[in-house]
Design brief:
The chain is mainly beta and about 325 residues long. The protein has 3 helices and 18 strands. Strand 5 and strand 6 form a beta hairpin. It holds the Pfam family Peptidase_M23. This is Peptidase family M23.
């Protein structure tokens, strides 16, 4: 996805670093597991198919970076800084791409990364920060920056429909996995990490969340047939979430909001360990029907006080 569109931003690197030369710090001003979470890792499987570095499900085919997601769009609007993961020099940047939830019909060829900064740390190692907010960049090409210095803010630019930082680590112009940078595409290997303090890995997550007009069958959730983009005003409003490797004691929060009201905010206790499972909750339409407008759904999977995963869903009532 993003890998092929970054040639202009990732060109011009040289010799390979070692972990002793550059270690990376957390690149977002947020608390992992509290106010943000890791949604996707680098795809560790070359060719078709996908796997994260632990042979888990938290990646996408040919995904070239680590996605650090906010919990809500309200956080983005309030402003969350993207931070330099290590000292370096600004090698390239781009600004001016609009912040908006991506329309699948939109042609964004060449700007999939959105507003971005590429930081050169020397000895062939670079880091790339994608999907920054338009007009938020605080650096200029050629600037020297310190570890932890703000580069801009998380936005909604480029190929994205939720606020997150796509963070890519490059060695000699090729993306590598900072969690397992010598694994050579073999998931589950125990190669060194490039992190100064590596965030913990959790195999549990959410495949998707969506709206439907009834509680769907599991097969419909799995193949995508359950999802609807629009609803009649007199039909039920149901939000579902598809989980993987959820553990007994986890709690799934399902929340739906309309244009002028909260529709529901419901919590479901996970009672068994499951490789895959889905849960749903909804409301019948009021007598006067649902107000016209756009509705948003949020599925948040928690383990105690720790945020494991969040997915968002959207539907229109016309």
């Amino acid at each position: 996805m993003i890998r092929s569109a970054l040639l202009a931003l990732i060109a011009g690197t040289s010799a390979a670093p070692t972990a002793a030369e550059v270690l990376l710090s957390w690149p977002v001003d947020c608390d992992n597991g509290r106010t943000c979470f890791i949604e996707d890792y680098v795809d560790a499987t070359p060719g078709p198919g996908m796997s994260d570095f632990m042979c888990g499900l938290k990646s996408r085919d040919e995904h070239s970076g680590t996605d650090i997601a906010l919990l809500s769009d309200a956080q983005r609007l309030a402003g969350v800084d993207v931070l330099a993961a290590a000292p370096g020099r600004i090698a390239a940047l781009r600004d001016g791409v609009e912040d908006r939830r991506m329309d699948n019909a939109e042609d964004i060829s060449g700007i999939e990364c959105g507003n971005a900064v590429r930081l050169d740390h020397g000895d062939g190692l670079q880091t790339l920060y994608c999907h920054l907010a338009k007009g938020s960049l605080t650096v200029a090409e050629g600037d020297s920056v310190e570890r932890g210095q703000a580069l801009g803010r998380i936005g909604l630019s480029g190929q994205t429909n939720y606020p997150h930082l796509h963070f890519t680590v490059l060695r000699d112009g090729e993306s590598i996995d900072p969690f397992d940078y010598e694994a050579a595409g073999i998931c589950g290997a125990t190669a060194p990490t490039l992190w100064e303090d590596a965030p913990p890995y959790v195999e549990t997550g959410l495949f998707t969340a969506g709206f439907s007009n009834q509680v769907p069958e599991f097969s419909e959730v799995q193949n995508g047939d359950a999802r609807v983009d629009s609803l009649a005003a007199d039909t039920a409003l149901v939000l579902y979430a598809h989980m993987f490797h959820a553990e007994r004691g986890d709690v799934l929060h399902l929340e739906a909001k309309g244009p002028d009201r909260s529709v529901f905010d419901h919590s479901i206790l996970v009672k068994t360990d499951d490789a895959q499972a889905f849960r749903a909750f909804g409301r019948r339409a009021p007598e006067e029907g649902w107000p016209s407008g756009d509705y948003t759904g949020t599925a948040r999977l928690m383990r105690g006080e720790t945020v494991i995963a969040v997915r968002h869903a959207y539907v229109s009532v016309r």
